[in-house]
Specification:
Elements: H1 28-46, E1 50-56, E2 59-66, E3 68-70, E4 75-76, E5 83-84, H2 89-102, H3 128-132, H4 147-150, H5 157-164, H6 181-195, H7 199-208, E6 217-218, E7 232-235, E8 238-241, H8 251-254, E9 256-258, H9 260-268, H10 278-284, E10 297-301, E11 304-313, E12 316-323, E13 328-334, H11 341-353, H12 370-374, E14 378-381, E15 386-392, E16 395-400, E17 405-412, E18 415-418, E19 423-429, E20 435-442, E21 445-451
Antiparallel strand pairs: 1-2, 1-13, 3-4, 5-9, 6-9, 7-8, 10-11, 11-12, 12-13, 14-15, 14-21, 15-16, 16-17, 17-18, 18-19, 19-20, 20-21
Helix pairs in contact: 1-11, 2-6, 2-7, 5-6
Length: 453
Amino acid sequence: MSAKYRVRLLVVVPLLFFVLPAFAQVPASDFVSRAEEYLAAQMRVNRFMGTVLVAHRGEILLRKGYGFADLEHTIPNTPITKFRIGSLTKAFTAAAILLLEQQGRLRVQDSICSFLDPCPPAWQTITLHHLLTHTSGIPNFTSFPDYAEKMALPCPVRCTIDRFRDRPLEFVPGERWAYSNSGYILLGYVIEKVSGQPYERFLRDRILEPLELDDTGYDHTETILPHRARGYSREGEQLRNARFLDMTIPHAAGALYSTVEDLYRWEQSFYTDLLLPAPVRERLFTPVQNDYAYGWGVRQQFDRKLIGHGGGINGFSAFLARYPEERVTIIVLSNVEQANAGRIARDLAAILFGATYELPRERTAIELPTDVLERYVGRYQSEALTLEITREGNRLFAQAAGQPKLEIFAEAEDRFFLRAVDAQLTFHRDAAGKVIGLELVQAGTKLTLRRIE
């Protein structure tokens, strides 16, 4: 769940893109040495821990664990370590819906009200297609102010639906795009209703076992799961155990665990008819709005087609990137919540394709007078994000709607960075020197926000 299950500061995007000219691919040996240098810097600067896999045309170039799966017992991460994958779950959910359509048991143009009784009147025109593509207008329950208070309490799928079923729609279905975990919770309910099986059983019978994904499944906290990574949250320079999330909640929007090796087998299946025939796979990867298809984002990156998705859930960050024209796969799984798996995947692709990237570097904070800090206080907005900048004494904080308040640190006047996540803010001024907006850079993606008050 994005995001980025809980999408965190600062940009609610399921995948992260940066368009550059095409470049030639570097030799495998050069790629490995540069990738290792880059990942060592990620460990040193950003305290990265996790597992990475990079493959090209069926040849695995890099498959390695970094840091620890369990800090308390100093158990290292390895290629068989199991991580929660958050919103990478959505791709499995979308495939399950299309499998049921192949069986003639539903159509993606069916109304959600065909499966849900009672159904809110406002949902009558919402189709499964809208839910799959985040165009339903149903508000995202993980952005509700009380979500953090309730996430530790068991809440099976009908309970979760009750949390958002009576909320007004944010827009007319189909007219806009807004990332919504709520929509994928509903899709999980539909899968159970139509198949007559629990969501995890349907996935195991129809997807996981046929593809021999033996190290992938629905994560239950109480299950003894060999090679399971523990999830951590970074607070400043310290790592702490992540906040507890009851796994009945994420369901079809973000409850799966997997390994880089299983996710590689899953990704490779899309070059075959093992799961879905070619015409159905084409629908799966055809974007509708905001470059989002069915559980996948589809855009251009480095002048190449990129199909990918990210996942963020308490204690974990994940990203799967596939470049189908080059048959390149990059998978990053981390058991540090603030790890920017999307940025790491993007930079590894840049290394492979000979594009521009930067090694992570330590940033040094400076002190600014409180009267200077006060000039930045206000609300900033773009179509994708509203950001509140507040001051507490000589400290400045940024907070996106429905997300935690995080301290930002000055490295120059008008230029700030975050320590909790890999993001930077640059404030813009008009000719008179008044702050009128800011630019947010996160994971190689730039977003411009204007000051609205």
